Amino acid sequence: MKRLAALMAVAFVDMIGLMIVLPLLPLYAQRLHADPATIGFLAASFPVAQLASSPVWGRVSDRYGRRPAILVGLGASALAYLIFGFADALWLLFVSRFVQGLGGGTTGVAQAYVADTMPANERAKALGWLSAATSLGVIVGPALGSLATHAGETAPGLVAAALCVVNVFFAWKWLPESRVLESRVTTASGRHLPPVEPRPVREAMWDVIRHPRRPVAQLIWIYAVAMLAYNSTPPVFILYLSWRFGITEHSVGYFFLIFGGVGVLMRAFVVGPVNARFGEVRTMRLGAALYALGYALIPLAGSVATFLLYQTLLPLGTALLFPANSALVSHQADKHEFGLMMGVQQALRGVASVVGPIWAGFAYQTLGPRVPFFACAAVIACALLLATQVPHSEAAPAAAA
Fold it and tell me: Is 21 exposed, middle or buried (0-12, 13-18, 19+ CB in 10 A)?
């Protein structure tokens, strides 16, 4: 629990930095004469880098440890925020997002850290707590970013970079290594063998693509499809708020308070009991259903109050869907490949994150502001359909552990 608490603190501060910058990005890009389609490409530059780096980070962490990978990732984020702070051209915003994506490739490493630290039957709950920490950052970050804009356009990036530097120091001092790096493996018969090497990244990726019906691959595909919707709407979400309700950079940060607050409460107090009562598979399905419903209702909101009411369904759904899914992946993956499979999961998320903002930006610009939200509801419905094909026995390893 001490290791989990330290990881939660690191994730919390890291998310504050991310959310200081993220809500402002589309508005800053608009000021630099970017249209919605270009903003979609800008949003996609982060997952392009994340896609390239996630499996590599996962394999590196399996071989050399989780802690070094996390520290380097945090350092890359600090550099990205510094570039954002001084960006006076659109191409610099692209560079900032790409560098940040390289650091963001360690998301799977953090999940593997939890898998190393917690027993199997506690992983969904622990991943829920980790998500609660990041959701708390979703509350603090946007409000801090909007507040910082009053000190000038460069202030949010500089504040985020400073927080990241502090976070690197905290992680270096207080976050211990979770993975035991074995020099040899002792078999049941007493033989001493060299440690098991994780498979090459390309081989693991190809295995998931070629055999989508295998237990681990099936769960990773559910995650990737759901993430297609999750990563499609953030840039157009902010543009929609500006178009529909006149939200500006000085107020957009406070709009995330509801989203983050509900996410924190759900992950801290609801995910564990719901998972314990219904199991990870049913929890995953319930989350997908609520998530799809939220996307379907949001474009129908005629007032800010109604919009916020419908918006609460999104953190309700993600809080149940994603931690349960990641826990199921950790149960099905071999112990020496936790980091690799989490990295593959994040890589496919990266593919979805590249495609999502691009099509959402074009759809927003050419088909109308409401179309991306209805489309995301249909995408999540596909993830729900895939989740209904996962047998309840997939949760068995957790119960047995």
Answer: buried
Q: Is 213 exposed, middle or buried (0-12, 13-18, 19+ CB in 10 A)?
A: exposed
- pLDDT (tens digit, 9 = 90+) per residue, 335-344? 667 667 777 8
CATH of the domain at 265: 1.20.1250.20
Burial, 219: exposed, middle or buried (Cβ in 10 Å; 0-12, 13-18, 19+)?
buried
| Residues 40, 359: Cα–Cα separation, whole Å | 7
274: its two tokens: 């719901």
Q: What is the pLDDT of residues 206-251, one digit of tens each?
A: 888 888 888 888 899 999 999 999 888 888 888 898 888 888 777 7
Query: 163-172, 190-199, 234-243, 359-368: which has the minimum mean pLDDT?
Result: 190-199
Q: Would 60 be classed as within a structural domain?
A: yes
Q: How many CB atoms lie within 10 A of CB 170?
A: 15
Domain that holds residue 18: 2-177+198-400
